[in-house]
């Protein structure tokens, strides 16, 4: 951030340079790994080397990084492929700011459709494809699954997996934002800063958006049935929660922030007619995470619409903990437990 303020380089470029400089393992004795393109979208395919009696499951992994960073997921993808004996496809969608939002969503949708129509070429059963994403990748996974509801020409996804997903940009004063606003790795203000950078919006908007001045009264009323803190179990409020005062509405701010109400950015705002057609779902939430309540609210919406949900809550988890799996002494046990639950869920599909 200091480098960016001094005009030396943008923060996101420095982060990319650092992360791209950390080479992942070169070989994996249990996997074939190949870089390909699915309809011009870069992907990396992880295929188990062991022979299979039949077609395998396929897992499309849509990585997080707020649409701007994307090199931290090698170990996660290998872990899933090895542990679940599935073919994993990590989508290397184009990144912002070079490729503005919603390029990332369209790349993910394009790669997903391509995989669904060519799955058998990779030894995958097209009726057993799972769409998975973490953080903002969970946003993309949810948005892709919602879009596929209307695609009668394609097989329905077998399941969707969302790992501590960001799902709405309407209310930044939910209990989890109040309780965990200063908890690394994702701070309350930082969440919106990254989101505004992703949308290429003026960062001076952040303070008023955090207060909710971008939401008109009619939308507050409409969204309240889905986003009300009353929908969050009391056990998640005991660490502290104070209902926030209603902020004064700014029509100008609403116009500038309008993309945050799109379901490609805030999938939690999708209509019930869409939600009730979604596939069964696995949701991971972490106690010490500002977006914890996004996952809890989506869990309730899915269940209210008859969609089966498997939920795992990491009571000692935090946002980004999965990045560190398989890093030896710097791995967190809560991250390994969470990933074991993800793998076991996939194996049961």
UniProtKB/TrEMBL annotation:
Acetylation as UniProt keyword: no
Key word Transit peptide present: no
Domain of life the protein comes from: Eukaryota
GO terms for MF: carboxylic ester hydrolase activity
Organism of this sequence: Chelydra serpentina (Snapping turtle)
SUPFAM superfamilies in UniProt: alpha/beta-Hydrolases (SSF53474)
Signal peptide region: none
InterPro entries for this protein: AB_hydrolase_3, AB_hydrolase_fold, Arylacetamide_deacetylase, GDXG_lipolytic_enzyme
Family statement: Belongs to the 'GDXG' lipolytic enzyme family.
Protein name (database record): Alpha/beta hydrolase fold-3 domain-containing protein
Residues annotated as the enzyme's active site: 135, 289, 319
Keywords: Hydrolase
GO cellular component assignments: membrane
Residue span(s) of domain Alpha/beta hydrolase fold-3: 59-201, 260-321
